[in-house]
Amino acid sequence: MFSVEKWKNGEKWTNWAGNIIAYPSEMHLPCSIEEVVNVVKHARDRKKTIRVTGAAHSFSAVAMPEHIALSLHNMRGLISIDAENQEATLWGGTYLYEIGPLLAKHGFGLMNMGDIQEQSIAGAVSTGTHGTGVTLGSLSSAVTRWCFVDGNGTYHEHIRGTDDLSEALHVSLGMLGVLVKVTLKVLPLYSLHYIGTRDTLTNGLATFAQDIRQHRHVEWFYFPGSETIQIKRMNAMAPVYQSEWRKYVENIKLQMVENGAFFAISELCKWKPALSSAMSKLAAANVVEAEKIGISYEIYPSPRSVKFQESEYAISLTQFEACMEEIHAMFKKGHLHVHFPLECRTTAGEAGYLSPTQGQESAFIAFHMYKGMSEEPYFTWVHNLMQKYHGRPHWGKQSHLTAQQVHALYPNIDKFLTVRAQYDPDKVFFTRYLEQLFIL
Ligand SMILES: Cc1cc2nc3c(=O)[nH]c(=O)nc-3n(C[C@H](O)[C@H](O)[C@H](O)COP(=O)(O)OP(=O)(O)OC[C@H]3O[C@@H](n4cnc5c(N)ncnc54)[C@H](O)[C@@H]3O)c2cc1C
User: Is the pTM of this model over 0.85?
Assistant: First the structure.
């Protein structure tokens, strides 16, 4: 991937997966809010659009710059901790892998995290990046204050309330401006006790509803066409650090099994896609059962060096079992050549005009395709299936959504667009991709 530190005007810009490429005419790395204001005014006066690049880890074109790319790579770090209210204020460019150790020094940790920690905090909260846990919302739901520079170049600090601006900022895809600082609700430092097991799909489905309430985090990996699933369960406990030796061993295991062996299987499937179903079953049969304990930020993320494309949808939690039965029935027919496991997680319902989980506890189902293998017709089938379940896509992942579908799935979309127009009347943050996605 290109490096934000070395970027030059007119050079190639690409996301992590490599499926989105652009050649922005200008790339800016501001070091202060004043410099951000100047870039926004410069863009507005020249009628150019800006997209902020976080860590470019979105699979969709949400971060794709048309004219001007801006990165907050030079605006990172912890600004302050309010221990009494359990809140931390961070610069928007701070990467998640920096946040764990920064908060731990003050005795705090993030409420939840997803699979990886390469994203920037502003990028993560702009797309509703989530982990798993039916009592927990996305990273966006932890935000209590947003500090942003709008499309007029005006700096705002907004404390979360029940007002339209809060609902619009909750998940905004950077359409209201540049998020320069965020304040997050944090928890006293905690560890996680992780247990990874193998089970049958039949057992998993029969116990899913109770299981997700008995553990703080439950995550499934379903191997296409296989009767075996991997279940990862995690629960919070008093802080215990992993020893350096244990960290080393865990890392080797993850690199060799989850990445090394899986890379070899994936290359085989790329060479002969018809082997995908057999390889999926082989991977399922070799799921490693494991147990580990460590500080939360050491346990949530895993290294992901096998590259892929991804589509992910939130559906009502009550529909999860039925949806999985349908997915399994389809894979058993053997028409789709997919070996990459589906990842199933849960979240609490939350606020936000653009939140995929608004109003309901949700199950997220993520569908992957190895980089270099065609994601079609798989993703088209996924999209059609998800329409049946009124699935709302993760904005940072691939989908086939049209503006008509967005308007049908998001009842408050007009309110969002009204707030957007108020804070960005000259459409500095509204690229063609976003216009096509939101304007009928
Ligand atoms: C390997 C991998 C694993 C992943 N795992 C998960 C997971 O477990 N859970 C999950 O929910 N998602 C996951 N994702 C998706 C990822 O978390 C989101 O797409 C996230 O938005 C990426 O953050 P980023 O910093 O790279 O932002 P980018 O992709 O660079 O940007 C995302 C959006 O935020 C905007 N933005 C970024 N910074 C700012 C700012 N300062 N101000 C205003 N707007 C801004 C961008 O313009 C864009 O619209 C994963 C992605 C990958 C590649």
Answer: yes
